[in-house]
Amino acid sequence: MTKTTYKNEQIKREFFEHLRGAEGFAPASVSKFAEAISQWQTFTDNEDFGSFNKTTAISFRDWLKTRETKTEAGKLTLVSQYNYLRRIKRFFTWLAAQPEYRNKVLKNEVEFLRLSKGDARIARAGTTRAMPSFDDARKIIESIEVKNEIDRRDRAMISFALTTGCRIFAIVSLRMKNFDKEKRLIHQNPGDGVHTKNSKTILTTFFPIGWDDPERYFVEWYEYLERKGFGPNDPIFPATLHDAGSVRYSKDDVGKAFWTGTDAARKIFEKRCHDAGVRYFHPHSFRHLIVSMMSKTRLTEEEKRAISLNLGHENVGTTFGSYGYGGMSEEDAVRIVQKLKDYQANEGSGCPLTDTERSVLERLLARR
Fold it and tell me: What is the pLDDT of residue 169?
């Protein structure tokens, strides 16, 4: 390891420690900063961070636009470029305040780590998210034929994701004591080891989705674990039973261990989608489906706030913007406008739109 490489790695560790300790970032979020800094180091061939300047910042921004990827598009999306730039900008802003770099990294030059206003606006609007329809979700859940513990667990997990909108890392880290069966409350408490975004404590309940079976499947699974002898600190969604003497996993039974991450749980969603003959929808997409369904009802501001808090969002705009109609497709926009046109042709006056559709149009106009 060269002197420059060692110096860079040392200051990176200090930055990551700052993110975790002083700002309370979760490990997954810190990893995203690490990836952004890695992109910078690849571009600069691991130059000393202290050599940062405006010219390099502009060149890095242009490099991100043309960088080849293995995606279908062959290059980074504007969303990815935006996220890389905002994270690397945060790193160099922090670096500029460190004694050794204060006279080397100038804050006014760090400002060049940004997209154009137009590109940034497009990136913040987000990309169209693939999410299941309600019929897709129902098909996935109903296709699981329960023959053993694993089938029962998988059905309960997907049902739980659909009815609560909990993030997958929280789901796989929930303990038996985090569910109040009588009050139907889920306590996402980081103090109990539940992995929530930014380590927030979140109190959640089941959303009214017009279909009672998923909630029942989950409660039946929970009661099954109680009868099996699971205690307060055991996982609600335990990992598949592992034979300690080999690398083999049981085809029928669960153990009492937590998963070490979310990969295995994501594969469950992938497998069950495949078995149902439905395209793969990742766990987080069920969270978007919840908001999409809620957005189709007439909600008071109080109800919107309640839904937002139930999902762990501090800002209602996050819930009904990024999660709700923020990623609305062009087809949705056409449908709403055609509804207006048809109504005016037939009736001659008035507006047939729901409050949600009216909000969508207002949002579209604001983007232009």
Answer: 92
Task: Give the start-to-end residue ranges of the domains of the chain.
Answer: 3-125, 134-290, 330-367
**Exposure of 63 by Cβ count < 10 A (0-12 exposed, 13-18 middle, 19+ buried)?**
middle
Annotate 38-67 with DSSP letters as a single string.
HHHHHHHTS--GGG--HHHHHHHHHHHHH-
Query: Pick the residue with more confidence: 199 or 234?
Result: 234
Q: What is the pTM of this model?
A: 0.61
Q: Please report which confidence band the pLDDT of residue 60 belongs to, taking 50, 70 and 90 as the band edges.
A: very high
Distance from C-alpha of 366 to C-alpha of 368, rounded to nearest angstrom: 6
CATH architecture of the domain with range 134-290 = Orthogonal Bundle (1.10)
User: What do you get for the CA distance between the two ends of the chain, in Å?
Assistant: 51
307 or 105: which leads in pLDDT: 105
